[in-house]
Amino acid sequence: MTTFDDRERAFENMFANDQELQFRIQARRNRLLGEWAAAKMGLTPEETDAYAKAVVQADFEEAGDEDVIRKLVGDMTSAGIDIDEPGVRAALDEQAVIARRMFIEAQ
């Protein structure tokens, strides 16, 4: 019976590690997306850092990416940047690829 218990523990650990990695990749993606948006809005380096952190925090409001997209579209529109939801989604996808690549290269 210990073989099955060991195997179960190994799968649980693997699942936990995968979930943690996905969380880190998503947080990195959101930070990169915040930096991208800040550059479009012409923010200073200090404002860029604060804005990127705010984008990461915005992702905790609800499940999925809608909260982040809504924040970016609203903020960028308020700043006079002509962007729509599909444009932000495209940037989100691009930053996800970059974030994933960063984690792969770090290992």
From TrEMBL:
Gene3D superfamilies: Domain of unknown function DUF1476
InterPro entries attached to this UniProt entry: ATPase_inh_sub_z, ATPase_inh_sub_z_sf
Pfam family, one: ATPaseInh_sub_z
Domain of life of the native organism: Bacteria
Protein name (database record): Aldolase
